[in-house]
Design goal:
- The chain has one domain (2-121).
- 78% of the residues lie in helices and 0% in strands.
- The protein has helices at 2-30, 39-64, 74-96, 104-121.
- The protein has 123 residues and is an all-alpha fold.
- The chain contains four helices and no strands.
- This is DMT family protein.
- It comes from Hallella mizrahii.
- The chain crosses the membrane at residues 37-56, 77-97, 103-121.
Length: 123
């Protein structure tokens, strides 16, 4: 149980960094902080954040993978990661980008992902 919870906690942390790396520069642009940065500068900025994503993602996969004594198969790890990614994205998008709201079709897509988690864990 410890390995499973550790894996999910590390995936949450990883996805916070991932979301900030992928979309944080857009918020900086809205705030007129990075408007004049060249594209390579934005890429380097994002990669610096993504480094911390990998510092959490790689241990999460190692701890959680059945082949290394963890509770999850490779497919289960991937489905968990995708669900965590969308949840983290939805929260951060609603905090940073207040004009972006969730609609019924987004919630339906999330429900489908929850169903995917259910099915991937069925024996």
């Amino acid at each position: 149980m410890y390995r499973g919870l550790s894996t999910i906690a590390l995936l949450l942390c990883s996805n916070v960094f991932m979301t900030l790396a992928w979309y944080g520069h857009l918020k900086l642009q809205q705030a007129h902080i990075s408007n004049h940065w060249p594209l390579i500068g934005v890429i380097v900025f994002s990669w610096c954040i993504a480094f911390f994503e990998y510092c959490c993602q790689v241990p999460a996969n190692r701890i959680g993978f059945q082949g290394d004594g963890g509770p999850f198969s490779l497919i289960q790890l991937k489905v968990i990661q995708e669900c965590v990614s969308l949840i983290v994205f939805a929260v951060i998008a609603n905090i940073l980008f207040q004009g972006q709201s969730l609609h019924w079709n987004h919630l339906a897509a999330f429900a489908c992902l929850i169903a995917a988690v259910y099915f991937v864990f069925m024996k």
